[in-house]
Amino acid sequence: MDRLGACRAFVNVSERGSFTEGAAATRVPQSVASRRIAALEKHLGERLFDRSSRGATLTQFGRDMLPSAKRLVRLADDMEHEAKQAKLNPLRLAVPDVCTTRDLARLDAEARRNGVYLDLHAAAPAGRTELVRSREARAALAAVPSDDATWSVRLGLAGATDQIADTVYVEALRVGRAARSSRRSRIWIQPEDDVPHIRDRMFRIRDAVGLQPAQVTVSATLAAATAEVLGSTDLLLCSPKQAEELGLHWRPVGEIQLVRGFDVTAAVRDDAERIRTRLWHAIARCLGAHDQDGETP
């Protein structure tokens, strides 16, 4: 038996003295309201109403039960109201600071359509993790190795001028002894990729092909790295989406496949699952991530 539905019908019929009007207030057909009240009477073991052609009149038992029924209905209504308010409470999500304002706005809009209200906070990888640890954010898009990633973003090298080759080899940046006095082109690693599974692999490639230590450098900001690239033959480690936004020409790295991986980390597991299941495509588009077939959503 639907006790809440029966109590709601009971309260509405008692207040209006009519099964027809009470059913309308309950937003159910009269036959449904009658069945619910009859089931409640059977469950309680006494009649709640004296039924007549003039309407429905509470019995003494009905008058005794009415306050409890009203409390139950009121508590249920309060719970529904609080549930609606809780859904509107924004979930603070720490996101990569390489996401553009437009992409973040689209993510926020799609989240609302999926019943998730976000408070987006941009930060670097270490900052995002710290925000969740300190409970300043409920969840974060954490930088993770590709094997642990929910979203994967291809990385390559981008320069100010179009490259003739389809692939850029790090080894090509090595300068011979005869040209030792000339300026060496550098690869700039932006803060988003200053994580061991990307940075350290680039350093190992640098050392393996004989580049100077300063030829693969971590920049303090993306803007500073981009400025260096725009004014020289330097290259920026970035995603195809970033290269397009910055007006750079992107190519894959010849010696290694690098992937910027992301997963949701959250203080509460339900928050992480809700973000993954409801916002997978919106986050993928925001990050410039690709699916298993290598296509960007």
Automatic annotation (TrEMBL):
Residues 1-59 form the HTH lysR-type domain. It holds the Pfam family HTH_1. It comes from the Bacteria. Keywords: DNA-binding, Transcription, Transcription regulation. InterPro entries: LysR_HTH_N, WH-like_DNA-bd_sf, WH_DNA-bd_sf. Belongs to the LysR transcriptional regulatory family. This is LysR family transcriptional regulator. It comes from Streptosporangium vulgare.
